[in-house]
Amino acid sequence: MVLLKGKHGFIALVVGIFLANLLFSEQNLSIGRQMQVNEKQKPFRALNILTLGGSITWGAQVTDPYPTLLQFEGHNVTNLAVRGHGSDYPARCIYSMLHDYRDGSKQFDPDESFDVVILEFSVNGMIHFDLLLRRLKDRYPDALFIYVDLNSLINLPALRDSELTKIVDSVDGNFFSFPKPKSLDNPNEMKFFERLYANDKHHLNDRGHSIVTSNVLQIISKANIPDRHTLGSWHGGDTCNSIFQTGRTLFDFSGDATLQEFDTNKHQFAIDVGSGGAVLTYSYNGEQDADLLLGYMTKCVDGHDPRSSLYPPVVIKISQTKEGIQTAVKEFESGDVRVTPSENNRAKYVVDVDGWTYLDSLYKRIIRRIHHQSQTSVIGVVKPGINFIYVRLMKETENPFRITSTVVCEACWRLNQESTQIM
Fold first, then answer.
1. What does 193-226 look like in DSSP terms, one character per residue?
2. Contact indicator for 96, 237 with CB cutoff of 8 Å
3. What's the predicted TM-score (pTM) here?
4. Which of 14, 109, 250, 408 gets the highest tally of CB atoms within 10 A of its CB?
5. Domain boundary assignment for the chain
6. Which residues, in sequence order, are bridge partners of residue 102?
């Protein structure tokens, strides 16, 4: 038994190892790469740790999620997890997320390096995970990267074995896979695992977070982390506005659109666009043309039935002049803007009129569609200066079209990895 430095280290380690051993002895389940505690503990050093993930890492359903437990151990943790998001948003916005970070009076220091980077996206989706990892490794080449593979008891598995193998290789084997049942149909097995989850059977409870914490600490204890780090390039960075988290926008809007706190319990915000359509006025201060992406909410009642989507499909057109938007309005209202199946394997649908983009408001991976989740997609190109973005609904649904973020990622273009993804 090793006593780790920190206020709650002993409790977290005892609880974590006890429960983990209990799981393995009773269920004989694999946790992927199980780490052993070193007999000789290295001298304690406070580490700068960055954590990225979804609502579990954010801390839903608990007071002290594993990033907070790591802070109790004496480490400095910057937790940038975002509820309802997979890896696609941080992949394109990690520069903005760090520079916008505030923890009370503390502001992020752009010249600060991280000793450890912890990633958790199995539950919420790993779209453009490769891009995120590439950007972080280019900026923090000496950091220890750890992947935490979690699951929901609502649907298993979160990832396929082939996907996990790629992830293990990408983080040099520094990987912890949370124990999971072999099947959701075995009541006795499910009752056993429910002891590690909150009442929603989706988020970890305190016991679950203790297991994650103890295993992450074991991985860190085995690593050779240098005292000094090289800071690499951001490759131009990104400019992102998370309406979802802040309730603030970097653009003006007009028409049938309002800024709404659509979930008052979780304090989640969006620009709600109704059937009358809206125009967003976006000012881009870059020097070159760039792809513009919108984040928007998705959810289906039945993940296998696109018709059960709670959010409407939309068409979007970008113009640099008001006259161009007036033309777009005429095109839409005349019925010329139609969506047809695409013969191109890279796109499911195309818009019959040039210059328009179609968003179906469906999450890319079918297994994730039953969950309320934001997704980002390219909607067109913005030019330096003022850009007008015209949004129209193709049909009405239970909810309006909900815009959660705007994204311009110069680094994504430079790295040429927009199409690279694990799943």
1. HGGGB-TTSSSB-HHHHHHHHHHHHHHHHHS---
2. yes
3. 0.79
4. 408
5. 9-222, 239-415
6. 107
Q: Sign (positive/negative) of CA torsion 162, 160, 81, 285?
A: positive
Q: Do 207 and 69 touch, CB atoms closer than 8 A?
A: no
Separation of alpha carbons 193 and 154, rounded Å: 12
Superfamily per CATH, domain 9-222: SGNH hydrolase (3.40.50.1110)
For 239-415, CATH number?
Answer: 2.60.120
Cα distances (Å, whole numbers) of residue 285 to 259, 281, 288: 24, 13, 9
Q: Which two tokens stand for residue 317?
A: 């057109």
CA distance 144 to 47: 11
41: which DSSP letter? P
Q: Quick one: how far is CA 83 from the chain centroid?
A: 8
pLDDT in tens, the chain (423 residues): 233 333 333 333 333 444 444 444 444 333 333 333 334 455 678 999 999 999 999 999 999 999 999 999 999 999 999 998 999 999 999 999 999 888 766 778 888 899 999 999 999 989 899 999 999 999 999 999 999 999 999 877 667 778 888 999 999 999 999 998 988 888 889 999 999 999 999 999 999 999 999 999 999 999 999 998 999 999 988 999 999 989 999 899 999 999 999 999 989 999 999 999 999 999 998 888 888 999 999 999 998 999 999 999 999 999 999 999 999 999 999 999 998 876 654 456 778 788 999 999 999 888 889 888 999 999 999 999 999 999 999 999 999 999 999 999 888 878 864 444 444
DSSP 8-state secondary structure symbol assigned to residue 172: T
Residue 228 has a CB neighbour count (10 Å cut-off) of: 6
What residues form DSSP beta bridges with 229?
Answer: none
Helix (H, G, I), strand (E, B) or coil at 102: strand
Please give the backbone phi and psi of residue 397, each rounded to the nearest 5 degrees, phi first: -130, -175
Q: How far, in Å, are 92, 121, 214 from residue 181 at the CA level?
A: 34, 19, 20
Closest CA to 406 of 257, 277, 248: 248
CB neighbour burial string for 384-395, b if at least 16 within 10 angstroms, e if fewer? eeebbbbbbbbe
Cβ contact 409:93 at 8 Å: yes
